[in-house]
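[step 3/7] inverse_fold.run input=structure_tokens len=232
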């Protein structure tokens, strides 16, 4: 089980990050939803649809953790793409309603994590994730994809611990995908080693996340040529 105090703290931060994301989404007019996002090939509507879809999918990880029975997020990559495309094509208010229901349901289902966990780890896209980090993984999704909407909201507005959740999720993904060897260090004294740790990269949490997740190297100090990074 997750310590109830930790679960309450994680869900509280998730609520804060999600409320800001919802406020941004609500502020977008119909034509603004079709503007390209920072996710290559996706519009803002696609990003919003993905956040709604992944909220539904991550409930399956809660089922896995609490039952011990493996539950894949999606039946197939094609099923995932089809669900996101169908949601993104909805009229604005219907898309927002789907997002709100996904948000509500995930928060309600996450309460189950305070009970006995039958699986210590779960799998997300081939990556092993501690069952106790499912809520943190959702926080990471919301923060990074809020940034992807490319609006007046900036990643600096996220809670520092939410940025840490996002960085841990991105680092986990990079390790699984065989990213170049790097030692990542933040001004907040976080440190992660990927591979042989050969290339030293320094920044604050905001700058490091922007580079690792979306390739924006403006605010990072790299001890050598910037490597190509796999997508997150």
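[step 3/7] decode complete -> sequence:
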């Amino acid at each position: 089980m997750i310590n109830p105090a930790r679960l309450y703290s994680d869900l509280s931060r998730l609520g804060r990050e999600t409320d800001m994301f919802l406020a941004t989404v609500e502020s977008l007019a119909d034509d603004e939803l079709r503007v390209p996002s920072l996710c290559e090939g996706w519009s803002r509507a696609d990003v919003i649809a993905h956040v709604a879809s992944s909220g539904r999918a991550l409930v399956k990880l809660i089922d896995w953790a609490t039952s011990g029975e493996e539950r894949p997020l999606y039946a197939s990559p094609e099923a995932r793409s089809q669900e996101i495309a169908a949601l993104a094509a909805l009229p604005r208010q219907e898309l927002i309603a789907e997002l709100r229901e996904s948000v509500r349901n995930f928060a309600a289902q996450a309460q189950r994590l305070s009970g006995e966990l039958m699986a210590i780890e779960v799998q997300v896209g081939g990556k092993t994730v501690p069952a106790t980090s499912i809520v943190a993984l959702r926080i990471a999704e919301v923060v990074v994809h809020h940034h992807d909407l490319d609006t007046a909201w900036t990643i600096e507005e996220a809670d520092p611990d939410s940025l840490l959740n996002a960085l841990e999720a991105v680092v986990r993904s990079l390790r699984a995908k065989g990213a170049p060897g790097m030692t990542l260090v933040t001004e907040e004294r976080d440190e992660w080693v990927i591979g042989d740790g050969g290339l030293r990269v320094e920044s604050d949490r905001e700058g490091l996340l922007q580079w690792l997740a979306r390739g924006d190297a403006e605010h990072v100090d790299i001890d050598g040529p910037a490597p190509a990074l796999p997508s997150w």
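[step 4/7] annotate
The chain is about 55% helix and 10% strand.
The chain has a mean pLDDT of 94.
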